[in-house]
Amino acid sequence: MTHRFPENFLWGGAVAANQVEGAYNQDGKGLSTADVVKYCPPEERQSLEQLLSMSGQQLEEAIQDGDQGKYPKRRGIDFYHRYKEDIALFAEMGFKVFRLSISWPRIYPNGDETVPNEAGLRFYDDVFDELRKYNIEPLVTISHYEMPVHLVTQYNGWESRELVELFVRYADTVFTRYRDKVKYWLTFNEINCTLKAPFLGAGIILDGKPNEKQVAFQALHHQFVASALAVKRGREINPQFQIGCMLARKLLYPYSSHPGDVLKAQAENQMAQFCSDVQVRGYYPSYIRRHLEQHRVTIEMQQGDEAVLRDNRVDFLSFSYYMSSVVSVDESITAKTEGNLSSGLKNPFLKTSDWGWQIDPTGLRVVLKEMHDRYQIPLFVVENGLGAADVLEPDGTIRDQYRIEYLAQHIEQMAEAIADGVELMGYASWGCIDLISASTSEMRKRYGYIYVDQDDGGNGTLQRIRKNSFYWYQKVIASGGTDLSY
């Protein structure tokens, strides 16, 4: 087939500050929630939930622990000092867009100061200027799985309403500073993660909380309000801004045609889109009421919150898509698969990655069509990719054919969705350069087109090496997505 993408389609890649920058204690940066996540060897991992949670005691120990080697996100891949080299490589591939995040504690070290850290602001000035040199549009996430640790110890993160004002101040600062350098913005990364991993998504310590769902939903409401107020302020600062929300989107299929399986899949897919329902439509959907009642959750709203959500909806919906899984009411079905922040039942019709994530390119087309039908606003795939244990061959090459096949199949399904009528803005594949994993804090789970010479222990030269996928993606972009051959 001939793949057709719009002329202005934004091809590129994505990273997060806490997974690439390093320099965790330089130029006035404060400690972030990502900086206190310790590396856990595979043989010691009990569950994904264990990796994504944090107790008060663990947090205190990590804050006091000066052993940088235990905390991989403190070192990242040294993008802080190597950004010019990395951006030059992105430009060589032909990137039209580069999704990155701003580190909140690099701008406000504790999060509740009234004056920002000028050194942090200057760093992102330099990064955006470098991107502009190559005509690469920055797509900036304001909050991507990190916040100042002080906001956790002082307020328990987003459980506190006080964070709304602090976040809006931070957003106002970066909107104002970069009003002429950044057009595309996202407020929160994978905002629905707050319900699955409250510490990762919202800086919440759940010690002694009798109703964890109550805490998570209340925190999520505070994030909704903060996001909407940030959208309002952003439009006041520059009406040309395009401000979107960002969702972790995993498609759930019914295990069988049993009506119970179908109903369960429908309900879980609704919950997967609960956050975008609020941020795109501007109100809490009716189906959520029963869910809240069943779990004894009462969301405390202030007067005016509903109007804020209604009047400050996002311009576009971005999302991550890596995999799908299945659900069933039959408790005897136990074969599990891993996934992005959650596990699920295994689909016998799909292949599985090295990390147990099931590969489902067609599911991306299904998701694109469903969300376009649901919302009728532009969509943007801002994360998609294959985590794999790449091998650096003796001749200096990385032959990641498996990654090329994965990406080609997903891009082909995006083209089909566009032909189906979906309005798709762009594609920023995840981890365009190898980085520290968000969930496992390991380095050997690689997504990039660019290999970084560093192992899980932080050993290596940090040399950047082009993988075979680098040259393939270069060809894809140059052809406007019409040549996916491999």
From TrEMBL:
Chain ranges passing through the membrane: none
SUPFAM superfamilies, alphabetized: (Trans)glycosidases (SSF51445)
Keyword terms of this UniProt record: Glycosidase, Hydrolase
Record's protein name: Amygdalase
PANTHER family xrefs: 6-PHOSPHO-BETA-GLUCOSIDASE ASCB-RELATED, GLYCOSYL HYDROLASE
Record family assignment: Belongs to the glycosyl hydrolase 1 family.
GO biological process: carbohydrate catabolic process
